[in-house]
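FORM 7B: Structural annotation worksheet

SECTION A. Query
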Amino acid sequence: MNRAEIATRIIKTLLSIAFFCGLVWVLFGENSYIRNALLERLHVDIWPSVLALVAFASVNIILSALTSLFPENFKVNLVGSSLRYLSAILLLFYFPYESLKIHIIRQYVPTLVALIIGIYAARLGGLLKGFVGFAVSGVGLVISLLSLSFLIASVLPIFSTTMLSVTAGVLLAYTLSALKFAGNESIKELGEYFSQKLPLFGFIGFIIGLYTIIRGFLLSFILQPLILSLTELVFLSVATALIIGGLFSHFNKKQLEAFIREEWKKHELKETIVLSGDASFLAEAVEDFVTRKEKSKFITHVVSVLVQLGVPLRNVAEVVHEIEAYDDEPLPMFAFGWYKKIIEKRNINRRIEFIKNISEKLKQNIEGGVSSALKYADIQQEMQ
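SECTION B. Predicted structure
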């Protein structure tokens, strides 16, 4: 960054501070309507609070400007971020609550400070790499969630159990997401799954916590409490079976892979495909895409054909982008093996239809003078 840019940033920072101070004076100055018509009637001394907020905002504006001068410098950004969080903590401790007659908030200051520290640690972990960053983020997540739970429980005691359930769900998922650092590929996939599903586990915890609140009301309305207990037992049994079945199918992928190969064998290439002069390569590319969703060979073949036949690069890029953007119906991690087979069967059909559509686009992109060099591949489904 050159001197002119640095000078511009400094001037902008000073102007921002001046504008902010001017706005505060207009709103809360000696002759302002808010101060004379409202605050003095309430017998509230606003200036100590305003000065504290002005100091906090000015410090943050200056820190933001300094860190923007060195956007790629990790240490500068770390120090700037740390000082911003520190200024927020100091504001909470030294804010003149009494002058605004809101001194009741002071009892929540330690919890709010813990919440800020937790958020800071969680964000700091995001800047660090590997397991160290994961562990630091985890500590921050624990502190922030527990602080938030305690804060909500203090204000709304009825939701204390619900918040603890949410916290437990998120922390359980985050702990299990540590499996992504394992060496085994299947275990690593489990860790990635839990890492992506933190909000889902928090929502499940919320539902469980909410149910514990309304369960007492349900028991008072149900004539036979045993019915509710049996319903809970059935639900718990199904959930347990689903988890066990999902784990079993996840760690026994060979069964699912064998099923996919058998489904592919039920389809036949009715016509030999000769697009790039290598029919065996295309057959292998199609099989890789249908059975393993491997796109690289299929894209290579399509690009080779279109380029050889002089198709404009813009049209080539459109077809390639469509292939790259293709996605399957998601396969759930925790599901019975038979349900995963149903989804994979649908995905095979979708991939075959997709290949047919791409083949049609190839024919449309090739001009009539060269289209005779293409023998269109018609993949016909013969499901039993």
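SECTION C. Observations
The CA atoms of residues 122 and 137 lie 4 Å apart. The radius of gyration is 31 Å.

SECTION D. Sign-off
Analyst initials: ____
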